[in-house]
Write a structure and sequence with these properties.
Layout lengths: L1 H13 L2 H22 L8 H20 L8 H8 L12 H23 L7 E5 L5 H9 L5 E6 L13 E4 L13 E7 L2 H4 L3 H14 E12 L4 H5 L2 H11 L3 H7 L3 H19 L14 H10 L2 E10 L10 E8 L1
Parallel strand pairs: 1-2, 1-4, 2-3, 4-5
Antiparallel strand pairs: 5-7, 6-7
Helix pairs in contact: 1-12, 2-3, 2-5, 2-12, 5-6
Length: about 325
């Protein structure tokens, strides 16, 4: 039942022509640009050839989705078939993409994420909630010297063999009431996770309360989310306007995104989230409740669940990322 509801959510957004066209075009452009940035032998690649292959990949995906619009129960089987992790892989995938994405995922992405949050890291202990393979936790162990203790938390142990001896780990489901870490951490992060937890105040509130209980006194939480950025809300906050203005100077995707109304922005984010995780990341089995909010809505639920806002940093559609969206970082202190 959950899967069919999620499929209906996806197709509702897919029928929004503006959102669909926007996402289809930025995926083509993002993939081609990311390959030329991150491929270990990018100087040997023909940009036009890479662009053509990316267009074929994305157009093929959208065509095959269009063919099953009347049968939403077929969406996740299709995603499983098209996943980058499917063996054997579908013919849409090509060597340049696979090589560049592998290099990006295991090296460039880790450093890029660290650069975004390193100034907000606090204390001597760290834990990443929804740590997945654990690569970022292991990265911080080696590159952020103040951390003497690093660990991950997830609902399942997805850690790669390479990091199992490197980092601590607890298998905990923070979506369940009163499920929290007995070990307290100075800094915790929740990176592109909360919108997968649920789409209600109650569901996300339970998750946030469990994080709060897992933080040491004076602890800090860093959240990364894909955020709806409606014009009327931005106009109420001078600091957000200033950040947006700086980003628009070099982020064309963000400029185009901001022209959409609230509903279309949300549809764009929903399509990006589904397609990024099901295809390039290759994990179509994850939950997609699509609990996306605006900055003000996130601020309300965060403050209502025991956090004070230290900083809101709008990162936007970050150039060079394979999967771009309206990224925002929230730096929070435990009340």
């Amino acid at each position: 039942m959950r899967r069919i509801n999620e499929a209906h959510t996806f197709f509702t957004s897919f029928t929004n022509t503006k959102a669909r066209k926007f996402v289809q075009e930025i995926l083509k452009k993002n993939y081609a640009e990311a390959i030329m940035v991150h491929h270990p032998e990018a100087h040997l690649l023909e940009k036009e050839d890479v662009t053509d292959k990316c267009q074929y990949l994305v157009d093929s995906v959208f065509q095959r989705i269009e063919e099953i619009q009347a049968s939403p129960e077929e969406l996740f089987p299709l995603f499983a078939q098209l996943s980058r992790n499917k063996q054997p892989r579908d013919k849409i995938w090509f060597d340049e993409f696979l090589q560049a994405y592998q290099f990006y995922k295991h090296q460039r992405k880790l450093n890029r994420r660290y650069e975004k949050i390193k100034n907000y890291l606090h204390g001597s202990s760290y834990c990443d909630i929804g740590c997945g393979g654990g690569d970022f936790v292991a990265f911080l162990k080696h590159y952020h010297q103040p951390f003497q203790q690093v660990a991950g938390i997830d609902v399942m142990d997805w850690r790669t063999e390479a990091v199992k001896e490197e980092i601590g780990f607890q298998m905990l489901d923070f979506s369940q009431p009163d499920t929290f870490s007995k070990v307290k951490y100075d800094t915790m992060s929740c990176l592109a996770v909360l919108h997968h937890v649920g789409n209600t105040d109650e569901a996300q509130g339970i998750f946030l309360q469990n994080i709060r209980k897992s933080l040491s006194e004076g602890g800090r939480l860093i959240i990364e989310e894909d955020v709806i950025l409606p014009e009327d809300e931005l106009l109420r906050h001078q600091e957000y306007q200033e950040q947006i203005q700086q980003l628009k100077e070099y982020q064309i995707n963000l400029s185009d995104f901001l022209q959409f109304d609230y509903a279309t922005q949300k549809d764009c984010i929903i399509l990006i989230d589904f397609l990024a995780n099901a295809l390039a990341v290759g994990v179509p089995e994850m939950a997609f409740p699509c609990g996306f909010r605006s900055i003000e809505a996130w601020t309300d639920i965060l403050e209502n669940n025991g956090f004070s806002i230290s900083k809101v940093k709008i990162a936007g559609f970050v150039p060079g990322n394979f999967n771009q969206s309206s990224h925002v970082y929230f730096v929070l202190n435990k009340k």
